[in-house]
Specification:
This protein is of the alpha/beta class. It has 15 helices and five strands. Helix 7 crosses helix 9. Bound molecules: cobalamin (B12). Cobalamin (B12) binds next to helix 8, helix 9, helix 10, strand 3 and strand 4.
């Protein structure tokens, strides 16, 4: 009994510290094989090695034998946390970050949509809270954003390699961020959800001059356009932008606006906006149940 408690706690605190078995094996000089054996309950460390492990993991030896009150069936789930993930994002390579989020996703049997929403978006919110409280360096916020950008694409590619959805030529999606807007990660998640649901995707991202955007809309002829605005102060610029599109484009696509810089009242003030999307799941619904909308 004590042994299995030790195994679970070792695994928990290793992940909490953002370490792979290999990394813990190197730091403790016990090797990856021993760590794997300990975690699988096949072997048990002697007293000396126990204290080495506790030291590397920054805990007391007794913590290995303290029940953290976790439900045994949920044991895997508790090994992951937003806090642990943020540490991994800041300090580890993109490969370790990917390994962490894939294990987390699989332990919870999450879809791509749920992984984006429940893990990545929640992490971004927590990063925002910490940034506000000055608990994160600007550099760390940038490092995290960049890793999350890569993870959005890596997760989506992995999903597509498992389940190939043929691209439907009649479903074209285009996404862009409001002029002056630097935030585009949720927009990128929508692009990947669209791609995984058979859309042909044109992710134009940020900083696109309006004339070029109009050209892109004429050439690619999207059925649906998603616009992202996080900064309220950019609303006026976005309105001018959208009005110009409305004026110059004959066959207008369905245009949806979303993000914390936008609300229903704002969306109503712009003629060519077909809808305001409040939540990530609401946006995904449009991309998945597309036939209802077109
Ligand atoms: C990551 C991040 C950055 C990254 C962006 C990286 C990137 N490539 O996107 C970097 C480091 C570049 C950055 C820069 C800045 N940032 Co910033 N950033 C964030 C952070 C932490 C996450 C942004 C994000 O992706 N949010 C997505 C989710 C978490 O937000 P959400 O509102 O819950 O989103 C929901 C809905 O709104 C909707 N949704 C969101 N986006 C979209 C898009 C579409 C199309 C749709 C349909 C729906 C939709 O779905 C979500 C889930 O339900 C936020 C904190 C936060 N809570 O958002 C600050 C935050 C947005 N940033 C902020 C600021 C102030 C800045 C800077 C001005 C800071 C500076 N002084 O340099 C700059 C420049 C901003 C600019 N001109 O655009 C402020 C904005 C305050 C405001 N004015 O409203 C925030 C809120 C931080 C804060 N707590 O103060 N930032």
């Amino acid at each position: 009994m004590e042994y299995s408690l030790f195994s679970r706690n070792l695994r928990y605190y290793r992940k909490y510290n953002g370490l792979t078995q290999n990394q813990l094996g190197l730091l403790s000089r016990l090797g990856q094989v021993s760590i794997a054996n300990y975690e699988a309950g096949r072997r048990f460390p002697n007293e000396k090695n126990l204290s080495v492990l506790a030291k590397v993991l920054n805990i007391e030896v007794s913590t290995f034998f303290t029940d953290r009150n976790i439900d045994i069936q949920q044991n895997n789930l508790s090994a992951f946390s937003i806090d642990g993930f943020i540490k991994v994002l800041i300090h580890e390579t993109i490969d370790s970050c990917f390994e962490y989020i894939v294990s987390w996703k699989e332990s919870l049997k999450y879809s791509l949509q749920k992984t984006y929403n429940n893990i990545l978006i929640s992490t971004l919110r927590e990063v925002g809270n910490r940034w506000e409280k000055n608990e994160l360096l600007i550099a760390e916020e940038h490092i995290i954003s960049e890793k999350i950008r890569s993870l959005i694409i890596l997760l989506s590619n992995k999903e597509r390699s498992l389940k190939l959805t043929p691209v439907r030529k009649d479903l074209v999606w285009l996404g862009f961020a409001a002029p002056g807007e630097q935030h585009y990660l949720v927009l990128l998640m929508f692009a990947e959800i669209a791609r995984n649901n058979g859309w042909e995707v044109f992710f134009v991202g940020k900083d696109i001059p309006v004339h070029d955007l109009i050209k892109a809309l004429m050439v690619y002829k999207p059925k649906v356009v998603f616009v992202s605005i996080q900064m309220e102060e950019l609303q006026e610029k976005l309105t001018n932008y959208l009005n110009e599109i409305d004026f110059k484009l004959k066959n207008k696509p369905l245009i949806y606006v979303g993000g914390r810089g936008c609300h229903t009242e704002y969306a109503k003030t712009v003629n060519c906006v077909d809808g305001f999307i409040k939540t990530f799941n609401q946006g995904c619904k449009i991309l998945i149940n597309v036939e209802e909308k077109l």
